[in-house]
Amino acid sequence: MIRYKLLKAKLTGDVFPQQVETQPFCSNDLKDKLKKRYGAISAAVLDDAFSIIAHE
To answer: How far apart, in whole angstroms, are the C-alpha atoms of residue 31 and residue 47?
Structure first.
C-alpha cells in the first residue's frame, strides 16, 4: 500500500501529496489477495494466469 502525506509549499501555500512509504507489489502479494477474496484457488491456475498475462 502506498501512503501519502500532505505538504504545504512555503512560498505559494499550495498543498500537494508526497509519497512517504512504498512496498514492492509482487505476484505473491496478488496471489494472496485473490485467495483471500475468492477462496481456494489452485496455485497452478494462478501461475498459468500470470504466465498468460506476462506473455501477452
So the answer is: 9
